[in-house]
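JOB MANIFEST
job_type = single_chain_structure
chain_count = 1
residues = 299
[input]
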Amino acid sequence: MEALTAFRQYLEREREYSPHTVLAYTRDISFLMEWVKTRTQSDVLPEHWYQDITHRQLRAWMAELLTQGVGARSLARKIASINAFYRFLQKTELTQKNPASRVSVPKIEKKLPVWLKPEETRQLFDSIHFSPDFLGTRDQLILEILYGCGLRRAELLNLSSNDIYLSKGVMKVKGKGNKERLVPFGDHVKTAYLAYIPLAEAEGFNVQEILFRDKSGKPLDPRQLHTLITQYIGQVSTLTQRSPHVLRHTFATHLLNEGADLNAIKEMLGHTSLAATQVYVHNSIAKLKQVYQKSHPKA
């Protein structure tokens, strides 16, 4: 079996990565293969092409990508993809070396999460008119869940009515690596859910299979979700970044600013380590500094 195909199946079946992650990893390897073809002036690579790659060649490829304007974050991901590919090859005894292990990861400047201010969030739910039909109630429920529960895009799109436990006020979420967690939700989510379900069923949609669909009945896809979130955030904020993740960041930042425990936020977000959650502390510290500057006599 061709190495890249075997690697894809390994990511899908054993590691249970999301389709988005699998695509990113395999695409990076494909880009490397095309670069090797160009360097060797060959239309077809030998079956075990990966055995001839050296760390110097990988560095040369990274240097070319830099000159083409590829950013440090994208380079780091490509190195991670190649590293994972070679670890798989070593595990399956297709090769003994890993040239990617000798390639340094570019330093990535950490960016603080972008989030909506409390007044912008209030406008999102109080000032925007949601039509009482299927699409309007669907959009309102999507916004309520993203902000009220802090779900990732893929987690939201994979929800079904079987994942919602109204009596307990929690939903079952399947996160990265198919890890399941329970996330609490409030009355706003419950009210929006109860308004949406009968309208979705009236359209003939099976909500036990998938919760969110477009008007034609097809499951809502990531592009459609991004478009509608961009439109709604644009009505209440001047942020240039307008995506479902902005509402996830807003969920975490607002909880932290209101005194929620960082470990509790970590569990609700589905982070594997506290380090991933601590980025929201920076937003909280920024708010504290603003309060200090405005309030302290010697600020």
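[summary]
The chain has a mean pLDDT of 90.
The CA atoms of residues 25 and 84 lie 8 Å apart.
exit_status = 0
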